[in-house]
Amino acid sequence: MTNHIKTLRITTLHVLDQEEALSFYCGVLGFEVKDDVDMGFMRWLTIALPTDPEHLVLLSVPGAPMHDQETAAQVRDLLTKGALGGIFLTSDDIHATYDAVVAAGAEITQEVVEQPYGTDFGARDPFGNSVRVSQPAEVSSEEIQRQYDAARA
Amino acid sequence: MLTPSEDTNRRMLRARDAMDRRFAEPLDVPALAGIAHLSVSQFARVFKETFGETPHRYLQRRRVERAMTLLRQTDRPVTEVAWDVGFASLGTFSRTFSTIVGCSPSEFRATHEPVHVPSCFIAAWTRPREGTVVSEKRDLPGGP
Questions:
Q1: Which of A41, A54, B36, B110 is the most buried (most CB within 10 A)?
Q2: What is the C-alpha separation between A17 and A39, in angstroms, rounded?
Q3: Do B75 and A80 touch (CB under 8 A)?
Q4: Which of A109, A143, A144 is the best mutation test for B, with the most CBs of B within 10 A?
Q5: Which residues have a Cβ under 8 Å from the Cβ of A87 and sit 6 or more positions away?
Q6: Which superfamily does CATH assign the domain made up of A10-152 to?
Q7: If 0-12 CB within 10 Å is exposed, 13-18 middle and 19+ buried, where does residue A43 land?
């Protein structure tokens, strides 16, 4: 590597309401607020997991002055259709996480499923972003491929 | 907070998520329409306006996508795969699969190796596109 890039620092997530986003990401998933700065033209609001404090998620509301009205409407349209991607998280107790998410009334897109690479489930944030949570299996990629090959032999 | 069209998007996404979650069960259109807070007659029309295809077609693609994954990743018999993904008859499954994918389930299995990427990515990206037949023939040994 010659470009000296070291870490993934901030990921942007489009949300429609920052307070509602905080209720979900902090209240349900366990993120904590890192920066909350009202800059007038926008509210710089970042969150991070206490166990992964260096990786920030910027909760960004589409709209002026970043977007013109039509562009903001397009982003909101895609977001509410579930077309803007989302985030992948890991848990060290996937069933406890799932129970907490369900108890909070979040929408589940996939129940807990055992996969060769681990155990995972899917949910939506209040706006339509996809949230996947996985408890990775303690096996290598080579071992997972070997299991697939054995199943097909 | 949401405009009427965004609210509709969100409700239709909830109905589509329910199909993603319960694809192996018989499709209950009144229940799906209820999730979207629409009448049964409005539901299919609004779903198509939102996602570009009817709920029935989406469910078919969803089931075929799951079948492709099971055929690729496991050695379950084709009959059981058909049942696993929500088809009540092997004939309907084979016909639907061939129409959407462009080859039979057995032919698909014979020409596709298992891969290890997260299943939700396989689910999203191998779901056949609306209105197209995915050509798998080029992957056959010896060519078409």
A1: B36
A2: 17
A3: no
A4: A109
A5: A11, A13, A57, A129, A130, A131, A132
A6: 2,3-Dihydroxybiphenyl 1,2-Dioxygenase, domain 1 (3.10.180.10)
A7: middle
pLDDT of residue A17: 97
Beta bridge partners of A29: none
User: Rounded to the nearest 5°, which phi and psi values hold at A110?
Assistant: -150, 130
The pair of structure tokens assigned to A80 is: 């509410």
For the entire predicted model, the pTM comes to 0.82
Amino acid B134: pLDDT: 46
Tokens 């709209």 map to which residue? Answer: A63
Complex confidence, ipTM: 0.85
Max CA pair span of chain B: 58
pLDDT tens track for B19-57:
999 999 987 889 999 999 999 989 999 999 999 999 999
A109 touches B at CB < 8 Å: yes
Q: CA torsion sign, A60 to A62 to A66 to A71?
A: positive
